[in-house]
Write a structure and sequence with these properties.
By secondary structure, this protein is an all-alpha fold. 80% of the residues lie in helices and 0% in strands. The longest helix has 41 residues.
């Protein structure tokens, strides 16, 4: 990080307070990026379950194929619901803190 990025008050000198403030700002930005990535993962999991369900009920997939893949399909839905549930649970827990 260039020195000018630490001079948050623009006085031309980097004080210890500027360094602490820049570190706090960098930590907040890192947490925000992590939360955005987690939110994206949850939305992808939700949409994959919806699309997967629509494909299974379409005429493109035969009943015998769905029956043959039943165990795998169950694991898919459990895994995706786990991602969504973990995101929602952690979000609620973090908002309560």
């Amino acid at each position: 990080m260039p020195e000018r990025d630490f001079d948050l008050d623009g006085d031309g000198a980097v004080s210890p307070e500027d360094v602490v403030a820049a570190e706090k700002l960098a930590e907040i930005e890192r947490q925000d990026r992590r939360q955005q990535a987690q939110r994206r993962m949850a939305w992808v999991a939700i949409w994959s379950m919806i699309v997967f369900t629509l494909v299974l009920f379409s005429p493109m997939v035969s009943d015998s194929r769905v029956s043959a893949l039943a165990d795998l399909l169950g694991l898919f839905y459990i895994a995706q619901a786990g991602v969504v549930g973990a995101f929602m649970g952690m979000t609620a827990w973090m908002n309560r803190k």
